[in-house]
Each structure stands twice: as structure tokens, then as C-alpha cells.
Amino acid sequence: MSKIEIKNLTFGYGTQGTLLFDEANLTFDTQWKLGLIGRNGRGKTTLLKILQQQLAYSGQVIHQLDFVYFPQPIQDKAQLTFYVLQEIADFEQWEIERELNLLQVDPAILWRAFETLSGGEQTKVLLALLFINEQSFPLIDEPTNHLDLLGRQQVANYLKKKRQGFIVVSHDRSFVDEVVDHVLSIEKSQLELYQGNFSVYEEQKKIRDAFELSQNEKLRKEIGRLKKTAAEKADWSKSREQDKYGRPSEKGSGGNPDKGFVGARAARTMKRSKVIEGRMDKQVSEKEQLLKDIEYIDPLTMNLQPSHHKRLLSVEDLSLSYAEKKLFQGISFEVGQGQRVALVGPNGSGKSSVIHYLLGQFKGESDGKAIYPQTLKISYVRQNYEDNQGTLTEFAEAQGLDYQAFLNNLHKLGMAREVFQNRIEQMSMGQRKKVELAKSLAQPADLYIWDEPLNYLDVFNQEQLEELILSVQPAMLLVEHDQTFLAKVETEIVFLKWNKDKA
């Protein structure tokens, strides 16, 4: 069995004031199926890049492996999928077909243009490429993005059956629970390794957090008691010092205090007060060491501008087609004030195409119609937002955003203020997703259209969005595969029946 050893790893991006890793040490077995978890921006993708020697760092990373990374960059998405994959790696056709069959994907997909595949289909073909060579060690970054519930289960089953180890980054708890046997958590101040799945990590994390909170409360009370005692002794010492020379009220009274005795006693008391202050300072220092890895979540804000129209969107018997092949059977639905309609269906059934149609971006054929007020203001969260570039100031100005509201939501979503100085294209995928989401939250809108908003977001962010939506009650059209999230926020589900006969 081979190992990956990390010794004294130190790394931080030049424009950030804090280090992502500071003298980190870690050893893990390459046979492990390791889940890498942590809040966005903590360095999950950065660690994968360091393993691949793509970033300069101090310390040592020792291994004898050939790493392969998902998602692989695609040069020309207009090519047939087979040729797109061949530009990434060498393989025989039967090898890629074998992996696709294991993923329950029809190998005929290889002879379609890559850009025509749904996000879930693209995910599966790129995953298949990782496991053709069993001597390679896969680094899998967010494979559940764009996968529907069935697709996530298919990928989970696929990974569970693999004999070789891998590292997988995912915020989908149930997915991680199924596929990993060890968890590496990037906390605020340290790396923590756990044997077991996400549930084991979460339970142990709760126990540790509860212990730290308990210790913090004890220290807080002790510091308060010490402060009071030190202040009382200091006050007494000062008053006794005055007795050496007689209090103003005592002058001329004939009193003759023993100045030496009073002074010595006052000095001893002052010394004890200084000792108490020293103990207090030590405990304050100990208190500062606690709670470093406890997460605090702030509520988000949304710039909802309710319309006087009760009905914001009406879709009547809509069907969409490519080359006369229907994506789904006709659908009808309405979105009114406070309603949150979720479009649900398998990958490739046309959910994102419905959104593109409503925004005037669909390039195929359509039947049916959509009716909405001409003054309707829509705020849109896209699946693909790679064109977001520049500084946050430049981006906010170009998008016409309230800059302060935009930054406030970014910070509440967990983006460190040091990252505000980075260009968007230099940010992690999780940070870039937060930029897209914070943009939508800052835009004045009657209707919010969000296409897979949870991709790249951690569980804390997901809870923030749930609380925001339930509090503000905006009108929304949603595409999302996380069933827990939808169950909490949707008011109506529209099922897209997939046309299996489509090309």
C-alpha cells in the first residue's frame, strides 16, 4: 500500500492576509476512499492543486502517484464527445464504453456533440474517463453538481464498487456517506482526519464543539470572577497606600497609623492582585484558543421588489424541441406572489431549457406560450457563470448592484474579507458561485429564477438560503436536485416527463 505524506505544508494566496495551510502535517493511505470536506474557500480545491504540483508552497508532499483530476478542462465543446475525451486521455473505445455501462449511460452518447449533453451527462462521461487506468489516483472535485437524484445514486454505486482509492470533494452529505471510508475536514485552524463517513465526522464534530462551548463558558465565568477579585484587591491596596500618609479627612486628628505595616500589607495585596491579573490573562489566552473551529451563520438579505401583479408568470402547454425531437411533453404552470415552483425531472429532460426559453435564450423549437408582465424584473442564478470576471468593484458596477449589499451577502456566505481583493476569475469555484448568488440577492427583482443554486455551496450556505426564502417568501422558479432543500422551500412541483425517444 502506498501513502501520501504532507509535511509542514504552508500555503496562502499572495493577495490574502491569512494562510490556508500553516505547517500542516498529514499522512493517508492511497487505498482509502477519502472525503475532503470544509466550508467554501477553506482550501479543498487548493489542496488538490497542491497535490498535482500546480501551486508553489513550502513544505513537502511525498507520493509516487499519477493523479487524474475531475472536472477535466474541455477545449472544444462543439466536438463529438468521443473526440473530446480522446484529447484528454488515451483509451480504447471499449474501455470508455465499459465505464459508461457501469454508470448506466448509453455509450451512444459518445457520438453526440459534448455541448449538447446535459450537465449530468457531461459529469458522467468525464467521471468514466478517470477510472479507465486503475494505476491512476483520482481527485474528484464536486461530482454531484448537475446530477439529479437518480444520477447521484448511480455515481455513488459506481464509486463504491471501485477497488482503487480516491479523494472526493462534495457537500452532499448522503453521497459522501455512501462512498467514503475516511473523512478529511479542513477546519478554521487545522486539518482533522476521521475514520468513517460524513455521519461519523458530524457526530464527532458536534461532541467537540459542545465540549469547547462548555469549556468556554467555564472560562468566561472564571475570568469574570478573577476580574472582580483583582479590581477589589487593587482598590483596597490603593486605599491602604493612602493610609500611610493619612486621609484628607484624618489630617489634624492626631491619628498616627503604622505606615510601615500599612505599606507592607498594601504591597502584598497589590502583588496578589497582579498574580490574579496574570492568571486572568492566561485564561483569556486559553479562551482565545477555543471556538476557533465553530461556525457562525448570519442571515442573508434579498432585494425583493414585490410587483402589484398577483400572477407573475403563466406557462401554457409549453414543449421544447431540438431538430423536431421533443425534450418533454407539454407543461403548464403559474408563478404568483410568494409561490416557489420547482421544475423536476431527470438530467436531460429540459429543465434548464425551460429557463432559457423564458429568458429568450433557447435555440431550439417551441410550442405553447409564456405570459408575463412587460415590466417584470427577473433575477437569474445561472448554472454556468465562468464569464464573471474582474474585481468585485468592477463587477458590481457593471451589474448595477448596491455595492454594500453585495459585499455584505458575500461575507455572510462565508467569503473572507481578504478575498474581496481577488479578481473573480482567481477565486475558487465555491467563491465564484457565491459571487453569482450574491449578485442575484442584490438585484431588485419581482421574480427569482435559480438554476441549481446549491452547486458548490456548503451545508451552512444551504441552511442560510432555506431560512432566507422562508422568511422573505419571494416568487421563484427553481431547478435543484437536492430533495431536502426543495421539500423545505417549494410550494409546487412541476414534473417534466422525459421524452425517451428524443435524439
Automatic annotation (TrEMBL):
Q: What keywords were assigned to this record?
A: ATP-binding, Nucleotide-binding
Q: Name one GO molecular function term.
A: ATP binding
The record, for NCBIfam families, names: ABCF_Lsa_all, ribo_prot_ABC_F
By its UniProt entry, which PANTHER family does this protein fall under?
ABC TRANSPORTER ATP-BINDING SUBUNIT, DRUG RESISTANCE ABC TRANSPORTER,ATP-BINDING PROTEIN
Region (Disordered), start-end ranges: 232-264
Q: Which SMART domains is this protein grouped with?
A: AAA
How is this protein named in the record?
Answer: Lincosamide and streptogramin A transport system ATP-binding/permease protein
Tell me the organism.
Isobaculum melis
